[in-house]
Amino acid sequence: MNLVEIATPAGALDVGRRRALVARLVTAFLGGPEESAAVPEATLRRARSMAHLGFRELEDWSTGHGPWSAQSTPPLWITVTVPESWRQEAGSQLISLIGRAVRAWDADQGWERPGHDLWVNVVGVHDGCLGLAGRPATSDDVLAYMTEEHRAHPDPSGPLPEGVVVDPMCGMQVRLGPRAITLDHGGTTHGFCARACRDAYARQHGLPVPA
Questions:
Q1: Residues of the domain holding 162
Q2: What is the tally of structural domains in the chain?
Q3: Does 26 share its domain with 65?
Q4: 8 has which bridge partners?
Q5: Global pTM?
Q6: Segment 36-47, tens digit of pLDDT
């Protein structure tokens, strides 16, 4: 789930530039062909449907130096909304992904962007204050919805490379190692793509949620 609002000065970006930026951000969030290969198609398809991006144009955009000039690179103020329990883990990663996507987009436009002209806010919504399909939801509800199709009809993973396991929640392939996110259950070491998947698995099976 990524709800992304991109604020820009009114009239700064035409439709083509807006769509190009959205394409860059979608690839950053959901991965290109190589990254997507490690994620089951059903999970990726639902994740794409849960990513919403849009623009909000602000009139009379100014900084402390005065009004923004149409002759300069348009500043961007990007807000990403995620479940609160995901925010700390996802925040720095999302900011880095957005930064790289915007730099690539700027290069396509022939723009150079001062550091102070890109601001990213990652905002968390507490459980019960997030509405999924018009009903109060938790982060586990969001994850369950995103992985619902995969869990109903798991994609056959085939032989896995040595040291690679499948996240039991979302089906993503995870390489075990010192930095892997794991949980031992029933005599098996499970690997997870993120703490959100691990913690949801622990709650689902009545296990203590790791600190």
A1: 157-211
A2: 2
A3: yes
A4: 57
A5: 0.89
A6: 568 889 999 999
